[in-house]
Model the fold of this input.
Amino acid sequence: MPKVETENKTPEKETISSLDTIAGTFAFSKREKFITDRYTLHSFFYQMKENPDYKQLFSHYGFSKYDIYPFSRKLEEAFSWLQLADILSLDNPKYGTWTMNSEIKEKVKNKLDQIGKVNDINKDKIEKLELLGKEFDNYLDNIENKKD
Done:
């Protein structure tokens, strides 16, 4: 994952970055392929930011509520950085899905595990990311079931 400079430069103070939040959501999902539909993704992450259980994970993200759907420029940047770092890949002709293979998922989980060992606050956030991955699966399952 790309290293994001923060004020906390010592390992004891390492925290979960905005990129870790998004990468972790994908990594803890049961899926390897994810739709790239911006309405769906931005809406999901906005709902999670508004959810008291996950709000602390999204403190880096602001959303405009005056567009057709809740939109976050920071979330778009995260998607771009994750693609540049080869954490998410677009490997289909229509660019309709991202892929995060199992090897990359394990690398992301291992990195998050190391951060989680730094302090209890991080450990709690990692546990919330695991739940967030399941929420993401349920959200996408519901959308897919509506299409059928």
Q: What stands out?
A: Confidence is low (pLDDT under 50) at residues 4-9. The radius of gyration is 15 Å. The CA atoms of residues 72 and 122 lie 24 Å apart. Residues 16-141 form one domain.
